[in-house]
Amino acid sequence: MSNDGELFQELFLWIGQDLPKTTDAKFEYLQTPNEIIVKQLLPDCIVLSMPTEVQDEVLMTLRHHELTSHCLILVLQDSPLSPYLANGTWDEDYTQHYQTYKSRKQQIKLRYYDDNAYKLLAYLWLHPEFILTPQSVPSSSTLFNYPLLNSWGIAPEESFSWLTSLKRKGWIESNSLINRVRFCGACQSGHLNYIDTCPQCQSIEIEMQASLHCFNCGHIGKQDRFKKKLGLSCPNCTQNLRHIGVDYDRPIENQHCSGCDSIFIEANVDAECLHCKVHNKLADLQVRNIYDYRLETTGRRIVRQGKDQGLFALLPGDAMTNTQFDWLITWQNQLAIRHGHEHTIVSIQMLNLNAFLAQEGETKGFAHLDALLERIRSTIRNTDACSYSPIHGLLLFLPFTKIDQIKVIYSKIFELKSRQTVSNIEVSIRAIALPDKNWGDDVQIWLTDKLASVESL
């Protein structure tokens, strides 16, 4: 199935119990979701009216099937999975919610049903209030999962790295840090038992112990062994201990090992995996930050433009990946040093995209943005190398171009600066020169440091 922006006849379904008397007449009644599959229906809005223990199973089924994976689903009552798979609670004022969904559906140009990454972008676009939130599942070795991704066949153990890769591309952004968990270095299970062990013999037979230190002979032992009927006495030298700080004190070593009889301040801590039984040092555990996610500006443009072409949708010249661009400028820097060539790298960034779109509204805001990007694209020559970086924005490599020539060659770019008051889009343009003999080992670090060291033109 494809989604090319066509308008489909609206279909509203009520699944489960009988319709209330006040329900909008446009709803059709179905007893089970299986009828959708059998009849190959393509609903726009579904209301679920059923017991909570059944509702979660139905939600997973609806989100799994391509006919219903992205439609607006409302529930009459919350269930454990409804915050992750439904789009809110139904009431008779649902129409505003549906109109937002319908308007956004008409703007999608992305074919997404055969690609899970595109499916996620489209879902987050259709339901702008939705944040991809992890669910705590203590019985699972991953401890957390994303029910929406699970319904699409993405395994919990794969979802974390998969979402991180989408974040690196700038398609989604982390909304907040939900938790930080640790996993076994051998089998990646989160079911760990933290065990205190003796630093001398690694025995687990340790206990807290009150001890005393005799100043006369230096003996250290259990407090019970120093007691006598009328006070305290050292069991080693029999010296009476009357005044703490004068005759004796309490050592800071307050843990005792029954295996080797040693005392110590802090025990070693090992993490025993309850699945594979491997003992991990704390430093060897795999640390994973658990985030929830929402759609980034680049992801929104992909949905609206219909393909992965980055924020600037480069057409003139060759649009390179970041890896290709890094290799090119590294190679050209070496040639420039050897042969005395001069080149320029230009970075063009839009600094306030999210605030601008929130202020203007997405429909009007993207229209302004498209016009601005078209003017930028018109400045790119066929001989220029182009790449898009979520960190640096549009990167242009201008061969045999000196920095003082940029204002002449790219006058249209600088003209954008004078038009900012019209669109309220903040544009930052920075330029750095090649060659540079202080390149270092990492081109990305060099690029970041160099661009940060120059003022915006």
Secondary structure layout:
Layout: E1 12-16, E2 27-30, H1 34-39, E3 45-49, H2 52-64, E4 72-75, H3 82-85, H4 95-106, H5 116-126, E5 135-136, E6 144-145, H6 147-151, H7 156-168, E7 172-183, E8 192-197, E9 206-208, E10 211-214, E11 220-222, E12 227-228, E13 231-233, E14 240-241, E15 248-249, E16 255-257, E17 263-264, E18 268-273, E19 279-281, E20 286-295, H8 297-305, E21 318-320, H9 322-339, E22 343-350, H10 353-360, H11 362-377, E23 385-389, E24 393-398, H12 406-409, H13 411-418, H14 420-423, E25 427-434, H15 443-453
Parallel strand pairs: 1-2, 1-3, 3-4, 21-23
Antiparallel strand pairs: 5-6, 7-20, 8-18, 9-16, 10-11, 10-15, 12-13, 13-14, 16-17, 18-19, 22-24, 22-25, 23-24
Report on this structure.
With 457 residues, the protein is α+β, with helices and mostly antiparallel strands. It folds into 3 domains: 12-180, no CATH class; 192-282, no CATH class; 309-453, Alpha-Beta Plaits, CATH 3.30.70. It is 31% helix and 25% strand. It contains 15 helices and 25 strands. The strands form 8 sheets. Strands 21-23-24-22-25 form a 5-stranded mixed beta sheet, with helices on both faces. A 4-stranded parallel beta sheet has the order 2-1-3-4, with no helix packed on it. Strands 8-18-19 form a 3-stranded antiparallel beta sheet, with no helix packed on it.
